[in-house]
Amino acid sequence: PAHELVYQGVPADIAINAATFSAGRGSQTHYSVGAGMAFSSFQIDLGADFSDTNDTFSMSGVFRF
User: Fold this and answer.
1) What is the rounded distance in angstroms from the CA atom of residue 33 to the CA atom of residue 31?
2) Rounded to 5 degrees, what angle do the CA atoms 60, 43, 46 make?
3) pLDDT values of the chain reduced to their tens digit, one per residue, 65 residues
4) Rounded to whole angstroms, how far apart are CA atoms 65 and 13?
5) Quick one: residue 24, left, alpha or beta (phi over 0 = left, psi -120 to 50 = alpha)?
6) Is the pTM of this model over 0.70?
7) Distance, CA of 2 to CA of 45 (rounded, Å)
8) Neighbours of 46 (CB within 10 A)
C-alpha cells in the first residue's frame, strides 16, 4: 500500500500544504541522526533528517528547577 501523505485541496488555498504534500515524488530514502546530553538541571537534544527533497533539523531543550 501507499504510505505517503497527499494533499487533495485547491493548491491556491494553502500553497505551503500543496508544496509539502504534493504527490508524484515516488519513493524516498531518509537518513536521520540525533544526539542529546542531560545534566542535573538542563537537557539539550539535536536531530536531523535528510532526504532528496527535504532536510529537517530539530533542537529541544529542557530546564529543570
Assistant:
1) 7
2) 40
3) 666 666 666 666 677 766 666 666 667 788 999 999 999 999 999 999 998 878 999 999 999 99
4) 44
5) left
6) no
7) 32
8) 14
